[in-house]
Amino acid sequence: MLDRVKQNFLNDIEKSKDLKTLENIYKKYLGRKGELTKILRSLKDLSEKERKEKGKLANNLRQEIEEVIKAKSKKFFIKSRHVSVMQKNWIDVTAPGKLPAQGHLHPITLVQQEIEEIFQSMGFSIINGPEVETEHYNFDALNVPKNHPARDLWDTFWLKDIDLLLRTHTSPMQARYMEKNNPPLRIIVPGRCFRHEATDASHETTFHQIEGLMIGQNISMANLKGVLEGFMKRFYGPQVKLRWQPSYFPFTEPGLELLMGCSVCGGKGCSTCGQSGWMEVIPCGMVHPNVFKSAGYVLERWQGFAFGMGLDRIAMMKHKIDDIRLFYSNDLRFLNQF
Ligand code: PHE
After folding, report:
1. pLDDT digits (tens, 9 = 90+) for 113-154
2. pTM, to two decimals
3. Is the pLDDT of residue 19 over 80?
4. Of 67, 117, 134, 160, which sits most exposed with the smallest number of CB within 10 A?
């Protein structure tokens, strides 16, 4: 009888596969109505001798069953835990790693670097100048006399109580550089400029210019045209549409403006180009004799040209951006595109 119970138990254990089946097996043999429980209960009806003998065997079997189930359940428990941990914390060591988020250069900086490279290849040096300027370099030395109506061309941020201002253009570096260096020379001056004016799609109170200055003997308008048209074709590609028109700056004679076909509308006319289909990108001209005079250059010997391209506009035309304010809004949806 006990042998049969033991055999059944061992068969059942053999087939058990998880904690749930073990629990059922325990109930089947040692539960309230379990097979072995019944036998153990019936011991009291036996004679003392029989009870002693059979009782010993039955109790041994109970111990054995408990031990086997305990050992087995420990095994199943570890296994099930292992599986769930594996499912939760599973790491694919062969998966390619995630790159940490990386910053990058601002679109204006990228365009500036590209422009610098082109001018460097034409023999221009890169010079930097102060953003806070004196009235002298920003205006007087550039032939913009005090109280002259031409001063109104630049809406100036004046610093309180002192004779200083935020430079309204990069041109003051023309005067500063000429004062300290002898011609011939070829420089570009990239930098931030400031104007106290209302903002709109093509005007910001902060913007960037790249000033250019080339002085030598026999430098003429042909050189001006050659350098700037050459630059535009290298920067935008040979198909770029260009147009020249006369303009006025106190520090040039004559003054010119180089325009390009608006890339935002393809020349059809839009709000970015004021419906004209053209965008003024490089104001320029031949250096005015009065500027040479302020610098102490011998007028008869030297000629030159200067330009002051609007870096923001150049970048807008390159990337078909219709609003200059996007450059200064720090909007990642915009910046991440570059
Ligand atoms: N400084 C002028 C401006 O900001 C641009 C310019 C530079 C024009 C050099 C001619 C020569 O308006």
Report:
1. 999 999 999 999 999 999 999 999 999 999 998 888 777 778
2. 0.72
3. yes
4. 160
Do 308 and 285 contact (CB within 8 A), yes or no? no
Same domain, 182 and 258: yes
Residue 84 confidence (pLDDT) above 90 = no
3-class secondary-structure state, position 111 = helix
Give phi and psi for 297, each to the nearest 5.
-85, 150
What span, in angstroms and rounded, lies between the C-alpha atoms of 219 and 215?
7
Percent composition of the chain: helix, strand, coil (DSSP 3-state, to 5): 45, 20, 35
What's at 67, amino acid-wise? Answer: E
Residue 211 CA to ligand 1 center (angstroms) comes to 8
Residue 296 backbone class (left: φ over 0; alpha: ψ -120 to 50; beta: rest): left
Q: Do 74 and 86 touch, CB atoms closer than 8 A?
A: no
Residue 111, in any domain of the structure: yes
Q: Pocket around ligand 1: residues whose beta carbon is below 6 Å from it?
A: 169, 171, 249, 252, 283-285, 306-308
Ligand 1 midpoint to CA 298 (Å): 23
Under a CB-based contact definition with an 8 Å cutoff, are residues 318 and 260 in contact? no
Given a contact cutoff of 8 angstroms between Cβ atoms, the answer to whether 241 and 268 are in contact is: no
Q: Helix, strand, or coil here: 290?
A: helix
Place of tokens 């935020």: 166
**142 and 229: one domain?**
yes
Q: Which amino acid is at 115?
A: I
Q: Is the distance from CB of 47 to CB of 54 less than 8 angstroms?
A: no
Number of folded domains that form the chain: 2
Q: Would you say residue 99 lies in a domain? A: no
